[in-house]
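This section describes the prediction task in plain terms. A model, or a person checking by hand, is given the sequence of a single protein chain and must write out its three-dimensional structure as a string of tokens. No templates, partner chains or ligands are provided. The sample shown here is typical of the held-out split.
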Amino acid sequence: MQKSHDLFDSVTLWAVIATVVVAPTQYGITLGGQINVTLVDPLIWGTAFLWGINRLRKRDFIDVPLPPLVISLFVVLAALSAVRGAGLLQSAKDLIQLIEYFILAYILFTHVAVRRMGAMAVARLFLAVASVVILIGVIQYLTTPVDDFAVGATFGNRNVYGGFLSLCLPLFLGMLIYDNQWRRRMWYAAALLLGLATTLSGATMIAVAVGGSMVCLSRGQRTFLGFALVLVLLLGVVLPRLPRENTWELHDSIAMFEGDGTPAQRYPEWQAAFIMAQEHPLLGVGIGHYQENVGRYYGTLPSRNKKAEADTQNLYLVLASSIGFPGLLAFTGVLGLSVLRGINGTTRVPEPAVRGCCAGSAGALIAFSINSIWAPLLVRGIGIPLILVMVLASACTASRLISKNEECDPGIV
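The expected answer:
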């Protein structure tokens, strides 16, 4: 019987590792013309089922780390908003996605990946996968026929790719400035610079600059000044000379006005979303029903009669208008709690490399929060990496969860 249990444990661990590897992509199949499924979706649900069977066989649910209360509250409020939606299928689809991300993935990453491998091993696995994604972005960037908007690596466009970069680049930076192993530092530095060179999203550049600054300040003022100097040289000297003249693309991607003086398409939609949220403050119009309702709330602000660039909505306005202001506050609480845990770990943990993981995770979540002003980043391909970084921020706070094969207190995270 013990061998059977060991087999279950091994298969579950490798399935979770596979989840980390295949998560950063939006490419998949469409079922019924409405439901988009990526490889990670059945993998998460299948792994969770296998993990649950193993827990039942062992009769062991005592030490399972449940998600923090604020995460559960966010999911519950999103579920309650479904009563406002006209289409049950659309609401159910988005709600199932939230459960997959914030409940199943959180438990699997915490209980399986971090406890079996250690937080540092999980962080380096994630960064190895991120390095591959960035290399794909470099290839696309250097491929002339690829449009600027389509430079998205394994994602659909630059906005979602930028969201992924906002989650991994500050983590690369944290590991870079704290790690003492020079070969790893060369890896982190190369990935960081290539990521910054291939992003064509101004929102991402702002987000990484702010999140990265917070990471560097945890190390000291000199480190922050060094990072600021690198950013100035990058923006003022390097990026304007790259093949796609990045500085112009970074500006145009978030500019408030088009060349003819009319507002850029994203901002009238933000206004409409805010009006919609004001009229439905408690439960919104229902989870999954943002896009079908927002068009009715456009006001007098001029708007060009053309289709908006994909993934340019404001995530916070999308949440407020679709699940209500209580749901939005719960989501900001989810991000804020994880950031505070990462910062707490930076001050508590003595090991330099682990402090880098703590600081990098907190900086990544700050960058994600800023980038989400210009893009709805709670989407396929980004949701699972977001949860992974949140788990890393929490796990690094608990020194017993840092190293492989150590006992831990289940109440820590």
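For orientation: Confidence is low (pLDDT under 50) at residues 403-413.
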